[in-house]
Amino acid sequence: MKKKLENSLEKIEEKLEKSPLLGIRTYYWTAILFEFIIAAGLSLAAVLLLNHFLDIEDSSLLLVFAVLLCSSITAGISFYLNRWVLTPIRKLGGAMRQVAKGDFKIQVPTKSKIKDITEINRNFNLMVRALDGTEMLQTDFVSNVSHEFKTPLTAIEGYAMLLQGTPQMTDEQQEYVEKILLNTQRLSGLIGNVLLLSKIENQQIPKTLRPFQLDEQIRKVIMLHEPQWTEKEIELDVELNDIVCYGNESLLFHVWSNLISNAVKFNRFGGILRLRLEETQEQIIFTVEDQGPGIPEADLPHIFDKFYQGDNSHRQSGNGLGLSLVMRILNICNGTITVKNPEDGGACFCVKLKK
Cα angle at 164 between 158 and 168, to 5 degrees? Predict the structure, then answer.
């Protein structure tokens, strides 16, 4: 829904910019043209009248008077035109961008001397209020359903862990219990990602910013995934500079965890996992590179979309939310992420955070 809303608002704003009646550029240049025409005409008329009644022979004095009068008239017309037409349209454009980012509480003033602008702003406010109600309904639904899922999943996982240590069970039964545990953990991870993504998209994440040791956080994430990279006999090539980062520590933890988990999951057996953390005067740069099959060119534009899974992804466990979550967290933290396929194979993700 959010993606469709963003696309719709972008189209509306594009039409607003291009419209011959409501486009900001059209109003601006039309206003400039009429200002000069009106100001020049009034100034010329005033100079002619002044010269007729006072019979001033000094042409330079008449020219100065004409320029001053023309400038005053132009400034006055510009002030009222900006106040009545251009400023309300700029405010509407800014409000539309805020709605596209997920702010459904914003409203624009409906008082204007131009009837069309009043009507447009009133309809915009009605649309935003309707979207706010729909978003609240969707958020409550996702939150309630996710919590309802978590309770039975926790019970299933607990009972499965109890069965796992039962000596009377056969090897086949032990295998079934392990599969139950694996799938309940996958579902728990999916529900956790859905809840976190819902909170981020609805701006319910507190902006708790503080300095923390970024290289130590990434090392903790690496050790957290030790069972996975040990099982695949992956060799680690790690160079992490001593860097203090000022930001949301808990949110950024999800970024490194998702990227490193994906790099381990898609890496080949016995491959190399390269991790780099460095900084420049303006930004912090983290790269993670694996030696897996890489990302097909057709999938590259879509890998950060929600629930998108490329051909390689379907061969692995996953839910298509990890990279989408990474992208949205980095948007909150004023960061960026890019991906490319190195010439020697694999995939390389690069995260840049502003210092």
Answer: 130
Domain ranges of the chain: 2-101, 210-354
Query: Which pTM was predicted?
Result: 0.56
73's enclosing H/E stretch is helix 59-81
Burial of 256 (0-12, 13-18, 19+ CB in 10 A): buried
What are the residue ranges of helices labelled H in 101-213?
115-164, 171-201
Nearest to 161 by CA among 169, 253, 86: 169
C-alpha–C-alpha distance, residues 318 and 190, integer Å: 8
Task: List the end-to-end C-alpha distance of the chain, in Å, as a whole number.
Answer: 33
CA atoms within 13 A on the CB side of 97: 6
How far, rounded to the nearest angstrom, does the alpha carbon of residue 211 sit from its chain's CA centroid? 23
Burial of 332 (0-12, 13-18, 19+ CB in 10 A): middle
Cα three-residue angle 194-198-200, rounded to 5 degrees? 120
Q: Which amino acid, one-letter code, is at 99? A: V
Chain segment 227-282, per-residue pLDDT in tens:
889 999 999 999 999 999 988 888 899 899 999 999 999 999 999 999 999 999 88
**Alpha-helical runs (H) found in 276-336:** 322-332
Closest CA to 237 of 206, 202, 198, 276: 276
Quick one: DSSP state of residue 58?
-
Residue with tokens 């607990």: 158
Compute the distance between CA of residue 218 and CA of residue 256 in angstroms, rounded to an integer: 6
pLDDT value for 20: 40
CA distance 307 to 319: 6
- Structural fold of domain 210-354: Heat Shock Protein 90 (3.30.565)
User: Is the model's pLDDT at 8 over the cut of 70?
Assistant: no
Q: Where are the alpha helices (DSSP H) in 202-248?
A: 214-224, 226-231
State CA 185 to chain mean position distance: 28
Please, are residues 141 and 135 in contact by the beta-carbon 8 Å criterion?
A: no
For Cα atoms 131, 136, 140, give the angle at the middle one, nearest 5 degrees: 150
